[in-house]
Design brief:
The complex is a heterotrimer. By secondary structure, chain B is an alpha/beta fold. Chain B contains 18 helices and 13 strands. Chain C has 2 domains: about 1-55; about 60-280, MetI-like fold. In chain C, about 50% of the residues are buried. By secondary structure, chain C is mainly alpha-helical. The chains are: A mainly alpha, B alpha/beta, C mainly alpha.
């Protein structure tokens, strides 16, 4: 990938004749190249090269268990697919990503619509809803581990106790642990999605609504047939970035459950990190590469779906 | 105006980058290059809080010669293993490598300098070098000896006319009596702590190995892959698991973190919890009378504590200043510093020949166990041929599964065997 | 007509109540964080939500000193400030080229390559990164962390800039060129100032992420004088116990600058996102 890029950039120079002919179509001429240099340089050095190292390691048996390291071809990848924990990891990452992104948006979209209308204290509400996003995930983890604890002074259990609900072992029960993690992240990030919806809402022209009023549309129909389609760009951004960051979930799991109880909340990344801590570097690297491929595929599929939807809207 | 602002910003960025680079060449490691002999830093990272290490570091810096300074950086345990592994694997890392159960793995990975012939190695007894030597060669020195047992509230025991149990069966009886009186017998915070694991291992040390049917020879064989846990440990794990079956360890404990136990213990809500000397200061800060008894098996007369060398110190092979690092290590191995280390970890014992620590009265019940040196732990013995820490982590996870009712004894042992198979050293 | 008005009122009231309930849910954990800093551990355990008995800032002054706040703040600030500027400079120029030359295959390829960076958490290639940082002799410097942050945040920022630039008509640049302005002059004098909204957005969003980055400093900065705020916060997490009375105030102190920054910049966030990402 690296060399390919360099070749691509260089090609206008190394092939001046061809360059002249097609200048206006595909060449990138020199002032443009210079402007790309800082970005490409930093990106290559601090991102692509380390990534290439990882790719190379993934084909070796580099570990703390053996003093010699050799290339083992696809061995690591074969091992991955017979590792039952990987499937737990993929399953949890996917559940997390999908449920989290859906819940965030199901809350954020109506909230944004409401806060886009003339409501008292709307700026206060906007600020409040966004504010958890300012916190570091680690801080959120600590905070919520105290709120969700099943010990006698767990805040959430105390609160639902007021309504006569039995205490729930939020993080300790394998069945609820992942849900509890998602809960904290919906709390932290729905305000972020809301901001993006708000931005989009402000760009919708009033005329559309006025026209529909004349046609006698109800508010609900307006919401369904004007607001939602007009929000397509924001929905796209929120779902795609939400999915991607959802798959990358790591910090919050480590600070809330460390993947437990048992393996019930392990994600792809937490697993990779434990392989890493175990000193299984080659194997951990292959986890990383599999993760990258899965994410790219998923993002690709999502973007395709949006394209279909947008085409239909037009 | 705007243009100027942007210009200034760009200049700042460039200045920053250049500044950063020159900064790095002023950094600690390159001081020798500049001929600056007054301030050479030897680095060390560890998971012991600074207040524990403070006196030790100060002692060392007082007597450190040659213009060296020891700089200690705390990294909390959640990230420690990852950070140290990464640094070492990248050929970087602190000059002094500090590690516990993973120390043999560091030796195995060839990260440490051999120090077999250094004079200070002879300061320690054999048990103390168990984790820091391999194949007859020595790569590190111990800090102090840690052990875990069971803390109990003396007042609660007196109220119900109980005495510290002497066997595992008695422990179960004590728990039952307390439960009948509405007192929670045992406190476990299983969401992040290893206390259930300690409880199980403590039982095995007593019932399976030493006083039981097997000797520690079993672990040597297991480390080599000649025997499996499945099929050998089943009845013992099942016996211990009564503590789960009878509800003394329950699911609710999976949602509690280890440190949330202490306040309840101090408030008299919990009669016992698994722990060690590291709790002592906080317990002493409360207003209850407490004591510690040993892990238990079937033999009243020969009880064993779970424990071994705590952190070990070694020299990073990639240290840019091995001379300085050696000076620091020699000081770490000196009587004065070793004394300071033990004093900072009240209740711990020293592997330094001739240092006898005074043990507070709360430890009276385990005094003779300690005096007889009956302290050991299976994962240190496994560590000769696999990374011990990984087995600990897996054990904790699988036990969580057992408490949650997802995992049976057979599955637990099988998972441990599988893990061991995947991480056993290959050469 | 009248029924429509009462209808509106009902909807308004309903919306308001809904927001109030949601607001409460969002606010309670934040309130809990804040209020705990004024309580003793026992007080916090017994009555977690009540107002503190006394409003003493003792915990804060202690935390302030213990974490060497001015120093930790400056380190965090330096990393955040220069990373954000780096991201903006690199991505604005890069996004500009990738938009203006968007039809070329090379540009498309580069753009996709850069976008794929959004997917991959850099911690996965931390060993390679160590090699790079080592090779550049940047171990244990703020510079290393800043560069990593720039590289990590470039993809999304470039995406935003590239989309936004499509809303700036090329005619402006052409006109300036006819007036005799050079290529770079045109960019910095004409185009760059027009990107203000998206610059604001990128600056704000990246400030949040970079300020809260923990792994970067953890891996690459060892010596304490260079530690950032979150590393100081984490100092309280011991092997067997956490010093909560220090930790909660530290968390609040760590977040305070961001909160102030956010409240000041709030109106730009919405405006910026609208003009930035959504035009793509």
């Amino acid at each position: 990938m690296l060399w390919g890029t360099i070749l691509f950039i260089k090609s206008p120079f190394s092939n001046p004749e061809r360059n002249d002919k097609v200048k206006n179509k595909i060449s990138i001429n020199s002032p443009y190249i210079l402007m790309m240099v800082p970005l490409l340089a930093i990106y290559l050095v601090f991102y692509i090269i380390p990534l290439l190292y990882t790719a190379i390691y993934s084909f070796t048996d580099w570990s703390n268990y053996s003093s010699v390291t050799s290339f083992t071809g696809l061995n690591n990848y074969q091992k991955i697919f017979s590792d039952y924990t990987l499937f737990i990891g993929i399953k949890n990452s996917l559940i997390y990503a999908v449920v989290n992104v859906l819940m965030q948006n199901v809350i954020a979209l109506p909230v944004a619509v409401i806060l886009n209308s003339k409501l008292r204290f709307r700026n206060g509400f906007r600020a409040l809803f966004f504010s958890p996003a300012v916190l570091s995930t680690l801080v959120v983890g600590f905070l919520w581990s105290y709120i969700l604890t099943s010990s006698d002074y767990g805040l959430l259990n105390k609160m639902i106790g007021v309504f006569g609900i039995e205490p729930v072992n939020w993080l300790g029960n394998p069945k609820t642990a992942l849900a509890a993690i998602i809960l904290t992240q919906v709390w932290q990030w729905f305000g972020w999605a809301m901001v993006i919806y708000l931005a989009n809402l402000q760009s919708i022209s009033e005329d559309l609504y006025e026209a529909s009023m004349i046609d006698g549309c109800s508010r609900w129909k307006q919401f369904l047939y004007i607001t939602i389609p007009q929000l397509a760009p924001a929905i796209k951004i929120n779902l795609v970035t939400g999915m991607i960051s959802g798959l990358k979930v790591f910090d919050i799991v480590v600070s809330l459950t460390k993947g437990g109880p048992g393996y019930s909340t392990e994600t792809i990344l937490t697993l990779m990190f434990s392989k890493f801590s175990e000193g299984n570097y080659g194997y951990a690297a292959s986890f990383g590469i599999v993760f990258l491929i899965v994410s790219i595929l998923l993002a690709g599929v999502l973007l395709r779906l949006f394209k279909v939807w947008e085409d239909r809207l037009n | 105006m705007r243009k100027r602002r942007i210009f200034i910003l760009s200049v700042l960025l460039v200045a920053f980058i250049i500044g950063g680079c020159s900064n790095s060449s002023n950094g600690s490691n390159d001081d020798t290059k500049l001929g600056n002999k007054t301030n050479k830093t030897i680095s060390m990272i560890g998971w012991y809080e600074e207040n524990i290490m403070e006196d030790t570091i100060q002692k060392i810096n007082e007597s450190l010669e040659g213009g060296y300074t020891l700089e200690y950086t705390f990294v909390n345990l959640k990230q420690f293993n990852n950070v140290l592994s990464t640094q070492l694997a990248a050929g970087e890392g602190p000059d002094i490598v500090m590690d516990g159960a993973s120390f043999p793995a560091r030796i195995k990975a060839n990260y440490l300098l051999e120090i077999t012939n250094e004079d200070f190695v002879t300061n320690f007894n054999e048990a103390g070098l168990e984790l820091s030597s391999a194949n007859g060669k020595v790569y590190g020195i111990p800090s102090y000896g840690w052990y875990s047992g069971v803390w109990y509230n003396k007042e609660i025991f007196e109220t119900y006319n109980l005495t510290p149990p002497e066997t595992f069966a008695e422990l179960l009886e004590v728990c039952q009596t307390l439960t009948d009186h509405g007192v929670q017998p045992l406190g476990f915070g299983l969401s992040d702590s290893d206390t259930a694991w300690h409880s199980l291992v403590g039982y095995l040390e007593n019932a399976f190995y030493n006083g039981g049917t097997q000797t520690t020879e079993f672990d040597t064989k297991f480390a080599e892959g000649e025997v499996t846990l499945s099929g050998n440990l089943d009845p013992y794990v099942n016996e211990w698991a009564q503590i789960i079956k009878k509800g003394f360890i329950d699911e609710k404990m999976l949602g509690i973190s280890g440190e949330q136990i202490l306040p309840d213990f101090l408030a008299g809500k919990i009669a016992m919890f698994n722990g060690g000397p590291w709790h002592y200061e906080q317990l002493k800060g409360g207003d209850i009378e407490f004591g510690m008894f040993s892990h238990l098996g079937n033999d009243k007369d020969e009880k064993w504590l779970v424990g071994g060398p705590a952190a070990n110190f070694g020299i990073n092979k990639n240290s840019k200043d091995p001379e300085g690092a050696k000076k620091v290590l020699a000081l770490l191995a000196s009587e004065e510093v070793q004394k300071t280390i033990v004093e900072s970890n009240v209740g711990g014992f020293s592997y330094f020949k001739g240092i006898d620590t005074e043990i507070p009265e709360e430890y009276n019940d385990i005094k003779d166990v300690l005096a007889a040196g009956r302290v050991g732990v299976l994962w240190d013995r496994w560590g000769t041929n696999m990374p011990g820490q990984t087995m600990i982590d897996e054990g904790i996870k699988q036990l969580q599964g057992m408490v949650a009712g997802m995992t049976t004894t057979e599955q637990f042992l099988k998972a441990m065997d599988d893990k061991a198979n995947s991480i056993r050293y290959q050469d | 007509m009248k029924s429509d008005k009462t209808n509106k009122k009902i909807i308004h009231l309903l919306s308001f109540t809904l927001m109030l309930v949601l607001g409460l849910i969002v606010a309670i954990p934040l309130y809990y964080l804040l209020v705990t800093t004024f309580k003793t551990p026992l007080e916090a355990a017994v009555s977690p939500l009540s107002l503190p008995k006394s409003l003493s800032f003792g915990a804060y002054t202690a935390a302030f000193q213990k974490m060497e706040y001015p120093r930790a703040f400056m380190n965090t600030f330096i990393i955040t400030f220069f990373s954000v500027i780096g991201v903006i400079l690199c991505s604005s120029m890069g996004g500009y080229v990738l938009n203006r030359k968007g039809d070329s295959k090379t540009a498309k390829f580069i753009f996709i390559m850069i976008l794929s960076g959004i997917m991959f958490p850099y911690q996965m290639s931390v060993l390679g990164l160590y090699k790079v940082i080592q090779g550049l002799n940047l171990m244990n410097t703020l510079t290393a962390v800043a560069f990593i942050n720039i590289a990590v945040n470039i993809p999304f920022a470039t995406f935003m800039f590239r989309s936004f630039i499509s809303t700036i008509p090329g005619e402006l640049e052409e006109a300036a060129k006819i007036d005799g302005a050079g290529f770079y002059r045109v960019f910095w004098v004409i185009t760059f100032p027009l990107m203000k909204p998206v610059i604001a957005t990128v600056a704000i969003l990246n400030s949040l992420t970079i300020w809260n980055d923990f792994m970067g400093p953890l891996y690459f900065i060892q010596s304490r004088p260079k530690n950032v705020i979150l590393q100081e916060v984490y100092r309280n997490v011991g092997q067997f116990s956490t010093d909560w009375t220090s930790m909660f105030p530290m968390m609040v102190l760590g977040v305070l600058p961001l909160l102030v920054f956010y409240l000041l910049m709030q109106k730009y966030i919405i405006g910026g996102v609208m003009n930035g990402a959504l035009k793509g």
